[in-house]
């Protein structure tokens, strides 16, 4: 009985905390659906009345917004796919292949976590400028592929997989790559899903490097493009337009989390318990 009461109290606290956490998002959505005339008078309340979609229509009328959305999708998907491939290969090598200097190389990779992004921004910019690669998808994706956290996550996951599975595959004359591709990779789906979602989220919201390497409006990502619109349209279009921009940029991430939340929780639980 006491345990049931405790569980109900915990559930109630979680519901309250979730509601408090969602309030800012509901408020932003409300403001994006209110006419500017109403927003001038008051920004209170979470029920939009009267309602309008004019702010979203104005956002989509901006000619380059669909291109920015396409750029973000290409960059996020490309970065996610490449990160999953590189991190899983490196993680498997560190976890299962006993090569000379493995520990030293792993520590060197992990040292990348201690290097702040701002410290390498100038040399990175100069390098891509010398190669004349700015304003390309390659320049938007490539610098973000050096992901020590992804390598660490996959290494920890592969270390926890029983070696008996590999030994059984070796008895069937499976080579190293076939063991990785046919045995280890399917088992790592929860960890890969978690890493993929967080990588996609990071790529979608990334602002600092894209604003440096993308100097032509046609190559802006959605975060950079909407940021430029805030400066150009904020005074003329009002608060509702800014809130519509925020909703437009964050909606894909919210949908992604809702669809894959089971895998996120499962992946964190599995990798965190090893």
Structure description:
The chain crosses the membrane at residues 9-29, 68-92, 104-125, 137-158, 179-204, 239-260. By secondary structure, the chain is mainly alpha-helical. It has 2 domains: 1-52, no CATH class; 63-272, MetI-like fold, CATH 1.10.3720. Helices cover 76% and strands 0% of the residues. It is built from 14 helices and no strands. The protein has helices at 2-32, 36-41, 54-61, 65-96, 102-111, 121-130, 137-141, 148-160, 163-171, 176-187, 189-205, 208-213, 222-237, 239-272. Helix 3 (54-61) packs across helix 14 (239-272), helix 4 (65-96) runs antiparallel to helix 11 (189-205) and helix 13 (222-237) runs antiparallel to helix 14 (239-272). It is globular. 25% of the residues are buried.
Q: How large is the share of residues in beta strands?
A: under 5%
Count of helical segments?
Answer: 14
**Biggest pleated-sheet summary:** none
Output the CATH class name of the largest domain.
Answer: Mainly Alpha
- Shape, principal axes of CA atoms: globular
- Share of helix, binned: over 70%
Q: What is the CATH topology descriptor of the largest domain?
A: MetI-like fold
Low-confidence stretches are none
Q: In whole angstroms, how far apart are the ends?
A: 34 Å
Query: What's the β-strand tally?
Result: 0
Q: What's the helix-strand series?
A: HHHHHHHHHHHHHH
In short:
Pfam families: BPD_transp_1. The chain has 274 residues and is an all-alpha fold. It contains 14 helices and no strands.
């Amino acid at each position: 009985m006491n345990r049931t009461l405790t569980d109900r109290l915990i559930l109630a606290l979680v519901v309250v905390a979730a509601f408090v956490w969602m309030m800012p998002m509901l408020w932003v959505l409300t403001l994006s659906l209110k006419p500017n005339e109403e927003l001038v008078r008051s920004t209170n309340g979470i029920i939009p009345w009267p309602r309008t979609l004019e702010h979203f229509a104005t956002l989509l009328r901006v000619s380059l917004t669909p291109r920015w959305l396409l750029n973000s999708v290409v960059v996020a998907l490309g970065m996610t796919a490449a990160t999953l491939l590189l991190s899983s290969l490196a993680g498997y090598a560190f976890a299962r292949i006993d090569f000379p200097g493995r520990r030293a190389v792993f520590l060197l990779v992990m040292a990348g976590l201690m290097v702040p992004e701002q410290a390498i921004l100038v040399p990175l910019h100069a390098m891509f400028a010398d190669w004349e690669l700015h304003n390309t998808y390659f320049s938007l994706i490539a610098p973000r592929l050096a992901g020590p956290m992804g390598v660490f996550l996959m290494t920890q996951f592969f270390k926890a997989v029983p070696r008996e599975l590999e030994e059984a595959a070796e008895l069937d004359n499976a080579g190293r790559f076939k063991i990785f591709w046919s045995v280890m990779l399917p088992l790592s789906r929860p960890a890969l899903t978690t890493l993929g979602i967080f990588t996609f989220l990071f790529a979608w919201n990334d602002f600092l490097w894209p604003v440096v390497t993308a100097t032509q409006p046609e190559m802006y990502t959605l975060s950079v493009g909407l940021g430029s619109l805030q400066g150009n349209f904020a005074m003329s279009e009002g608060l509702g337009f800014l809130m519509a921009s925020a909703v437009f940029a964050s909606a894909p991430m919210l949908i992604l989390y809702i669809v894959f939340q089971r895998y996120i929780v499962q992946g964190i639980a599995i990798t965190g318990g090893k």
